[in-house]
Amino acid sequence: MKVSVTTLTLQDLDVDLLILPIGRSLARAKAAKIGGPIGEALNISLMDFDGEEGQALLCYPASGRAHRVAVIGIGDSGTVTREILRKAAAKGAALAMNTKAATVALCVPDSGIDAESAGQALVEGYVLASYDYDRYKTQPNQEKNITERLVLHADRDEKSARRGAERGRVESEATITARDLVNMSPHDKTPVQLGKIVERYGRKYGYDVSIWSKSDIEKEKMGGLLGVNRGSMDPPVLIEMTWKPTKAANSKPVVLVGKGIVFDTGGLSLKPTKDSMDHMKADMAGAAAVIGAMEAISRLDVPLYVIGLIPATDNRPGQNAYVPGDVLKMHSGMTVEVLNTDAEGRLILADALSYAKLYRPELVFDLATLTGAQVVALGSHVGAVMTQQDAGAQERLDAVLSAAELSGDLLHPMPMFPHYGESLKSDVADIKNIGNREAGTITAAKFLEHFVDYPWIHIDMAGPSFLKQSTSYRPAGGTGFGVRLLTEFIREYAYPKKR
Ligand code: BES
Ligand code: MN
Ligand code: ZN
User: Fold this and answer.
1) Which residue, 88, 130, 174, 421, shows the most beta carbons closer than 10 Å to its own?
2) How far is CA 264 from CA 118, 242, 253, 282, in A?
3) Catalytic residue check, 346
4) What is the sign of the dihedral through the CA atoms of 426, 428, 433 and 434?
5) Quick count: other Cβ atoms within 10 Å of Cβ 364?
């Protein structure tokens, strides 16, 4: 989708659809201000429209350039948030689809939000809602008519609106990269293929990529990744992405680790198919989020040294598959008794987290579709965030929760009290890979904590990474959760602002 910004008057916009997000009580004033046929049509629509959030209707100016006008309610000005703007734009995108509009103008409303953030949120909502995954469709989807050109209309602060629109476009496209990867058939994203895809992205967007082969992984003694891979026909890879701009604000990197299980059958502890294994092509959504974030950071030229790390394999019950009772010697040297081969994510992440120590990182994130318990606890729209309990814990949580709120990729913290780690005690090895039935999301994080010695933020995104039903700007399937969260966090980290 082409995205641009204009300051032309509304009457002069030659588009198929004009979208006006309008707050409560502002509709009348807006109609008067606009005047002409558009103002008239808007005035008539006031019969059924008072600007309440979620309201949307189409009106038809009797004459003029724009054929249709959509008015979308955004509630009381003063309480408008970026998320409300994203949702309003998503509503507009749905109307554009229904009316088969090829060119659309979207107005930045008076909302109390600065033009840059508003422009970003509107473009995000619009572009993300217009997503359609059609890679495997042999016939074009008649229902999904995607806008060709989106013009953001700003009557003031044009420069800021332009910056916001550009950032919104880049972050949305990077989110779409992640969605596409999650939605892709597992057969097309074996670890080696995934590595090739990322190499292509690296060349396109300007970050460096190096792919470790199985023998490199063996040399590093990554027993967790190799153990999970034993049941597979396909060799594992470790994908290393580097964005190191000369003007980077940090000399020690921020590292982003993503769980890259390209398909999770559960291994010998096999999953049932319905509502369980049937979604497990999405078990690399953490990896997809990291790949998307690397794209956004490099395209936006963020002055921060960032490394992305993806351990990738599938988890299958092959003839040589690891079995319950197997003891693995991990990259860190620690031994792990495997009591459930379906708790594989933590095994591959542990090796990547332990390897990340070599960078002497300033901060490490990991993103993973790690536990079913996370979905039970927080549902499909909110991820869980955890960090080790040390002096910096609160500051890290505050920063990541603020990025979550701003990006709309919502998070909620879970506690990391020491006693949660007790259920990981093993009779035969240093630890085992599962706890008891209680607090599964936290015990998984406690497992990972054994492998970090730096400030660390763990995000379990099993719920929000993949949706069965679409909502607002997130379609069914891969959501791209985490891309905008990480990008927002890293931008804030690179340019600490006075907010
Ligand atoms: N990939 C799954 C977690 C998952 C579940 C992601 C539902 C998305 C939706 C993970 O590898 C897994 O199987 N976890 C087990 C751990 C258990 C065996 C301790 C789980 O949560 O059941
Ligand atoms: Mn599993
Ligand atoms: Zn898994």
Assistant:
1) 88
2) 39, 27, 30, 9
3) yes
4) negative
5) 24
Q: Does residue 383's CB lie within 6 angstroms of at least one atom of ligand 1?
A: no
Quick check: CB of 287 below 6 Å from ligand 1? no
- The CA angle 386-387-393, to the nearest 5 degrees, is 125
pLDDT of res. 142? 76
> From ligand 3's centre to the CA of 175, what distance in Å?
21
336-368 pLDDT, tens digit each? 999 999 999 999 999 999 999 999 999 999 999
Does the beta carbon of 434 lie inside 6 Å of ligand 1? yes
- Ligand 3 mean position to 281 CA, how many Å? 10
pTM as predicted = 0.97
Q: Which two tokens stand for residue 136?
A: 């495997």
Which one of the ligands is nearest to 267 CA? 2
The pLDDT of residue 140 is 81
143 or 9: which carries more pLDDT confidence? 9
CA of residue 295 to ligand 3 center, whole Å: 24
**What end-to-end distance do the CA atoms of the chain give, in Å?**
32
Q: How many Å apart are CA 481 and CA 466, to the nearest integer?
A: 8
Confidence of residue 499 (pLDDT cuts 50, 70, 90): very low
Contact 34, 26 (CB under 8 A): no
Instruction: Report how far residue 361's alpha carbon sits from residue 364's, in angstroms, rounded to the nearest whole number.
Output: 7
**Which residues lie at CB < 5 A from ion ligand 3?**
261, 264, 283, 345
